[in-house]
């Protein structure tokens, strides 16, 4: 392998997948060194859920951390000491509790609350379908007012 090929492209899906591996390691009697390596990933999951209020209106799980300008939750992950990545909180929650989000799909908030990270309030859909639903909801709101 030549120089410059060592930098791995950032891949949050893969990073989160290591969480499952961590519990596997622990259940199979990992050495203390292995456990230490994965400990930070487990701490991160606990830190994530510490920012979620599961008693929101309508059963929503409300993100209490940082929101972006569109109202979606942001979570700052630590991938390695000094290496951070900001991910969307609802996508992270879905990945933790449900599984991988199919390639190219976006998560539609069925509850209409963008700060919500409850996986069963989210549905993976294509971008086109997401836009179609957004317009339909807007039309419905305009009809009501
Ligand atoms: Zn919700």
Question: Could you characterize what this model shows?
Answer:
The chain is α+β, with helices and mostly antiparallel strands and 145 residues long. The chain has one domain: Homing Intron 3 (I-Ppo) Encoded Endonuclease, Chain A (Alpha-Beta Complex). It contains 4 helices and 6 strands, in the order ααββββαββα. The protein has helices at 12-27, 32-49, 89-97, 127-144, and strands at 52-53, 62-63, 74-80, 83-88, 106-109, 122-125. The chain has a two-stranded antiparallel ribbon with strand order 1-2. It has a two-stranded antiparallel sheet with strand order 3-4. β3 (74-80) and β4 (83-88) form a beta hairpin. The longest helix is centred in the first third of the chain and has 18 residues, at 32-49.
């Amino acid at each position: 392998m030549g120089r410059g090929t060592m930098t791995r492209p950032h891949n949050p899906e893969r990073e989160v997948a290591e969480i499952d591996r961590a519990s596997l390691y622990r259940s199979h009697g990992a050495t203390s060194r292995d456990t230490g390596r994965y400990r930070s990933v487990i701490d991160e999951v606990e830190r994530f859920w510490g920012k979620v209020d599961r008693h929101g209106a309508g059963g929503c799980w409300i993100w209490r951390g940082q929101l972006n300008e569109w109202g979606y939750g942001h979570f700052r992950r630590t991938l390695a000491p000094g290496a951070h990545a900001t991910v969307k909180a609802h996508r992270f929650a879905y990945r933790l509790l449900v599984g991988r989000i199919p390639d190219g799909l976006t998560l539609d908030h069925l509850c209409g609350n963008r700060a919500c990270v409850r996986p069963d309030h989210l549905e993976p859909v294509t971008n086109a379908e997401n836009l179609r639903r957004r317009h339909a909801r807007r039309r419905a709101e305009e009809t009501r007012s």
